[in-house]
């Protein structure tokens, strides 16, 4: 299954010149741990250029007691971030996340335009559903076998 089929299409985004306070408010409002920094290409097309996580805010701005109204997401964003093409398989995406050591993976099309985002939490939910289906299959087979042998 391609990752593009399961990624969240509604992505919380910010512009490079948005303040980190604005980014933090977006994270709180949408109950997420990151914002993707994008360049707007018009017509709803956005190119991801960076990512800012809640941890980035704490480590780079809050702990050193910098002014959250002055520092921008462009100042602290990670521009060398991992992303994956929408046709990449789920398990290949999981392996890539593990190798890169990331919990969040922007999903892009062939032109590097933002399609969505997939997180560790999303993947754990998907895998737990799949494992649950396998457990139910095993239980069904055991019941079926027990009925035949009586």
TrEMBL record:
<feature type="domain" description="CBS">
    <location>
        <begin position="7"/>
        <end position="68"/>
    </location>
</feature>
<dbReference type="Pfam" id="PF00571">
    <property type="entry name" value="CBS"/>
</dbReference>
<keyword id="KW-0129">CBS domain</keyword>
<dbReference type="GO" id="GO:0016301">
    <property type="term" value="F:kinase activity"/>
</dbReference>
<protein>
    <submittedName>
        <fullName>CBS domain protein</fullName>
    </submittedName>
</protein>
<feature type="domain" description="CBS">
    <location>
        <begin position="77"/>
        <end position="133"/>
    </location>
</feature>
<dbReference type="InterPro" id="IPR051257">
    <property type="entry name" value="Diverse_CBS-Domain"/>
</dbReference>
<keyword id="KW-0418">Kinase</keyword>
<dbReference type="InterPro" id="IPR000644">
    <property type="entry name" value="CBS_dom"/>
</dbReference>
<dbReference type="InterPro" id="IPR046342">
    <property type="entry name" value="CBS_dom_sf"/>
</dbReference>
<keyword id="KW-0808">Transferase</keyword>
């Amino acid at each position: 299954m391609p990752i593009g089929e399961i990624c969240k299409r509604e992505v919380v985004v910010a512009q490079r010149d948005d303040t980190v306070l604005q980014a933090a408010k977006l994270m709180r409002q949408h109950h997420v741990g990151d914002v993707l920094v994008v360049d707007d290409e018009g017509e709803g097309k956005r190119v991801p250029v960076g990512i800012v996580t809640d941890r980035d805010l704490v480590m780079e701005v809050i702990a050193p007691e910098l002014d959250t109204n002055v520092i921008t997401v462009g100042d602290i964003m990670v521009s060398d971030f991992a992303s994956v093409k929408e046709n990449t398989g789920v398990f290949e995406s999981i392996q890539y996340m593990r190798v890169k050591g990331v919990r969040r993976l922007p999903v892009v099309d062939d032109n590097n335009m933002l399609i969505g985002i997939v997180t560790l939490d999303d993947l754990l939910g998907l895998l737990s559903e799949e494992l649950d289906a396998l457990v139910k299959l095993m239980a069904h087979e055991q019941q079926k076998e027990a009925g035949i042998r009586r």
